Structure formats: C-alpha cells, structure tokens
C-alpha cells in the first residue's frame, strides 16, 4: 500500500484480491478432502503433535517472517507466537493505519471458518494421498482470505477520513451497532456478490472444443464463492472495520 490512501486504491486492491481468492479455491479443488491432513498426530514429526496442515503453516510462516513478510501492516500471521526476527535490512513500509489497529487479528476465526464451514462445501470426499500439496493449497487459500478480510482496516481508515465527524461521534460513544450500520452499503455488497460469482464462472469453467456439452461445468461452484463472500468475507471484513474504528481515536 503506497502513501496517500484513497478509496480508489483500496477498491482496486479488493477487486484484485477477489481474483486471488477465486484462483486459490480452484487450486484447492484439484484435491479431495484428504482428511488425514487435519488429524493431530497423523504425521510422525518429532517434537510436534499438531496436524500436518498446522505444521506446514508454522514452518512456512517462520520462513516468511525471516524475510520480513510480517513487517507490513497488510500481513497477519496465523501463529504470532511462531515468528522469527527478519534477516533482511528493515524496509520503511508506509504506515497508513492507526498503530492501535496492529493488534487486530481475527485469523483464529478465519481458520475455523475455512476448515469447518467453507472447505466441506467445495472439496469432494476422498483421499488421494497428496497431503503436502493439499496443505500447501490450504495455506494459499487462508492467506488470501486473511489478507482480504483484514483489509477492512484500510477500508475503515478511508471511510473515517471521508467522514471524520460522523464516525468520530460514534467512536467516542463506542457504539458498535451504529458504526456497523454507518459503514454498511448493501448496494455495494450486492455488486461484490454478483462480481465474484461471475469471476468464478469465468475462471473456473471447464473448456471443451467440441461444443457438445450442453451443461456448463465449473471447477468450483460459483454459488459457493458467492456464499463465501456473503456469509463470511464481507461480514468478517466489517467486523474488522468496526474493531479498527473503535480504537481509531486512541
């Protein structure tokens, strides 16, 4: 995120992130559920008792932290206790958000949503033994979802700067419900819902050359992508927005 936060640059980023999320879901859909990936103790890893997917996350996150990934305000670790010091020279990332917002991290909620609610909607039952590939795809999906949902901080900052008096009054009152109502735009949410569904159709359509298939097939059901945004991505983004605004004047 460059200096000079604007509504337009935030909107462009959110639209690009839709592409990333849809493509990550398509990649994960190549593999069945592969349930052993999520069973604690399935992999005989010395000194580690969690699931294979947690192991992959922790190790990947640790490596990424050594090259400075989590020094950016846009990045949020799933296991903050597992970060290592960066080995690279410090980069002066633009700090466009209020410092109090750095403490907002709802990745625990995102993790639970993904594995317990979203994944069963599009991953077929079965086990093909591709456990490492499956965990790697889960990693990509969750990182994309986390970035998109926590981008609510940037959305909230733009909205606050556009209407500081309206938001300021509610922030001083710590009125969560009123803040949620003020930042909600149902027409925009409906547009996002239709756009991501259309992207899932465009990106995930099974292409044939003979033209004999009467029924169009998709790698991921577009309705599932639409539901993902309606039930989880947009509500959780707004939750992040409210939490950020509540501490915006600290």
TrEMBL record:
Predominant localisation class: cytoplasm
Please name the top-level EC class of this enzyme: isomerase
Q: What PROSITE patterns does the record point to?
A: CHORISMATE_MUT_3 (PS51169)
What is one Gene Ontology biological process annotated in the Swiss-Prot or TrEMBL record? amino acid biosynthetic process
This entry's Enzyme Commission designation comes to 5.4.99.5
The UniProt entry's GO CC annotations, sorted and at most eight, read: cytoplasm
Cited InterPro entries: Chorismate_II_sf, Chorismate_mutase_AroQ_euk, CM_AroQ_sf_eucaryotic, CM_II_prokaryot
The leader peptide range reads: none
**The organism's place on the tree of life at top rank:** Eukaryota
Query: Which reactions appear under catalytic activity for this entry?
Result: chorismate = prephenate
Q: Which UniProt keywords apply?
A: Amino-acid biosynthesis, Aromatic amino acid biosynthesis, Cytoplasm, Isomerase
Q: Which PANTHER family match?
A: CHORISMATE MUTASE
Q: Which NCBIfam families match?
A: CM_pl-yst (TIGR01802)
Q: Report what the protein is called.
A: Chorismate mutase
Q: Which organism is it from?
A: Escallonia herrerae
